[in-house]
Amino acid sequence: MHAIILTVHIIACLLLIGFVLIQHGKGADAGAAFGGGGGGASGSLFGSQGSASFLSRASAILATIFFITSLTLAYFSVETPGKAKSVTESAPTTEQKVDKTPADLPELP
Q1: CA dihedral in degrees (42, 44, 45, 49; nearest 10)?
Q2: Domain assignments of the chain as residue spans, ordered by start
Q3: Least buried of 1, 11, 51, 85, by fewest C-beta within 10 Å?
């Protein structure tokens, strides 16, 4: 079960990175509309989305899958789900023995 969720998690991660890198930002549309020239510049600023809706929906779905698999992997990583341990509780405690100051040392002022 852990291996399947981890595989889905890695695939979703790589696809999400790819989809985010393929998308162009909203600033690119504004820059093309005001300074890019061309006859349809106003259409690119006020509505012509093109493939942005598909890429944004796919990114949202992949992000949801990524978050769900992240939470699932975190849930399965705990040995007993009800009793999460702190790092400080599981650390070994050691006490150091402090020797008294020898009598032949001078006193501090």
Answers
A1: 150
A2: 1-31+55-80
A3: 1
